[in-house]
């Protein structure tokens, strides 16, 4: 990664930050008089600053990824997911699925240009393996892991799978490490109410129980 590439990625993320901030609002409201979540809308200055900061940091980190377009998309979409998850404990499928589609398109294009179909195959296998593993955890321990976690874990694993299986493993270890640190910080700084603290790692707040007692995402 060159400094120029990093600067361009950050500036591009800042440019689209107003739209990203609007999405963080649209994804957590019920239609706003029929306005779809992806439409631009007014947001507070505070929200705009927060989303812009998160997007800039993630875009700067993604500047060293390959292919760059896929990583930049993951960073900017991830900024929306980070803010929504931190505030509402929700990873909406309404944005995860379109984000996965555009990232897959970027990876497919890169595979064709580079003549490396094996990388694209590894992307699908990594997403399936990691997604399946997280789905099993979600099925066995629904209070701990939501379907939003499963979707994002599969997406991240697929993107890392483009690089190598080592990168996929490192990504999973990093996810567990960050989750442990986040849990520790929340436990140390949260209110001493005696109740378990919610950790913003997935979609848990907006869930309901089906007739069979299985947790279901309301906004999936």
Output the strand order for the largest sheet: 1-2
Describe the largest sheet. 2 strands, antiparallel
Shape: globular
Domain count:
2
| Total beta-strand segments | 2
Would you kindly provide a written description of the structure presented here, covering whatever features stand out?
The chain is mainly α. It folds into two domains: 1-88, no CATH class; 116-220, no CATH class. A two-stranded antiparallel sheet has the order 1-2. The model is unreliable at 193-197 and 202-220 (pLDDT under 50). Helix 2 runs antiparallel to helix 3 and helix 5 runs antiparallel to helix 6. It has helices at residues 3-26, 45-62, 68-88, 93-114, 117-140, 147-161, 165-189, and strands spanning 207-209, 215-217. Strand 1 (207-209) and strand 2 form a beta hairpin. The longest helix is centred in the C-terminal third of the chain and has 25 residues, at 165-189. The protein is 68% helix and 3% strand. The protein starts with a helix and ends with a strand.
């Amino acid at each position: 990664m060159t400094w120029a590439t990093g600067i361009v990625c950050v500036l591009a993320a800042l440019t689209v930050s107003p739209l990203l901030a609007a999405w963080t609002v649209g994804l957590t409201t019920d239609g706003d008089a029929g306005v779809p979540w992806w439409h631009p809308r007014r947001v507070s200055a505070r929200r705009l600053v927060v989303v812009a900061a998160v997007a800039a940091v993630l875009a700067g980190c993604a500047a060293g990824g390959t292919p760059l377009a896929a990583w930049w998309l993951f960073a900017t979409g991830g900024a929306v997911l980070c803010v929504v998850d931190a505030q509402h404990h929700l990873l909406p499928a309404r944005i995860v699925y379109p984000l996965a589609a555009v990232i897959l398109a970027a990876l497919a294009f890169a595979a064709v240009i580079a003549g490396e179909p094996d990388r694209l195959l590894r992307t699908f296998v990594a997403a399936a393996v990691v997604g399946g593993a997280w789905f099993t955890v979600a099925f066995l321990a629904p209070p701990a892991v939501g379907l939003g976690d499963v979707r994002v874990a599969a997406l991240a694993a697929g993107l890392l799978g483009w690089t190598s299986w080592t990168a996929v493993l490192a990504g999973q270890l990093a996810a567990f490490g960050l989750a442990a640190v986040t849990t520790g910080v929340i436990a140390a700084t949260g209110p001493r109410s005696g109740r378990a603290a919610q950790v913003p790692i997935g979609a848990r707040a907006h869930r309901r129980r089906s007739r069979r007692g299985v947790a279901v995402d309301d906004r999936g």
